[in-house]
Design a protein that fits this description.
Order of helices and strands: EEHEHHHH
CATH topology of the largest domain: GIY-YIG endonuclease
Largest sheet: 3 strands, antiparallel
Radius of gyration: 16 Å
Pfam family, one: GIY-YIG
CATH architecture of the largest domain: 3-Layer(aba) Sandwich
Structural class: alpha+beta
Low-confidence stretches: none
Number of domains: 2
CATH superfamily of the largest domain: GIY-YIG endonuclease
Mean pLDDT: 88
Distance between the termini: 34 Å
Number of helices: 5
Family: Belongs to the UPF0213 family.
Protein name: GIY-YIG nuclease family protein
CATH class of the largest domain: Alpha Beta
Shape: globular
InterPro entries: GIY-YIG_endonuc, GIY-YIG_endonuc_sf, UPF0213_domain
Helix content: 40-55%
Length: 115
């Protein structure tokens, strides 16, 4: 059976990059070796693998990769840290919960240390 991986790497500038591959070790090596000069991570090396999940279906992996790419930094950090309460909190719709909920979430983020 072939496996597919959705992963998040932390770049040297503290940004995150989300990707998908069928060989996680090879892909991290490619990011760090600078194989592709057009890649987001090229000028942000070295990168560190901080999260990944394994899938058996490529369409499922692609769907999860696209979803995570649309997430905020704090939501990605909640996933990386396995902080399920914050992940749920940061998933709430801004228009449904309003500015007060957004302000509280930002206060929570600023009061915690960065990854």
């Amino acid at each position: 059976m072939k496996f597919y991986y959705v992963y998040i790497v932390k770049c040297s500038d503290n940004s995150y990059y989300t990707g998908m591959t069928n060989n996680i070790n090879r892909r991290i090596f490619e990011h760090n070796s600078g194989k592709n000069q057009d890649c987001y991570t090229y000028n942000k090396r070295p990168v560190e693998l901080v999260w990944f999940e394994t899938f058996s279906e490529p369409t499922q992996a692609i769907m999860v990769e696209k979803k995570i790419k649309g997430w905020s930094r704090r939501k990605k950090e909640a996933l990386i840290n396995e902080d399920w309460d914050k992940l749920v909190k940061y998933s709430k719709n801004y228009t449904e919960f309003g500015k007060d909920a957004l302000r509280q979430a930002q206060d929570d983020t600023s009061s915690t240390s960065s990854v």
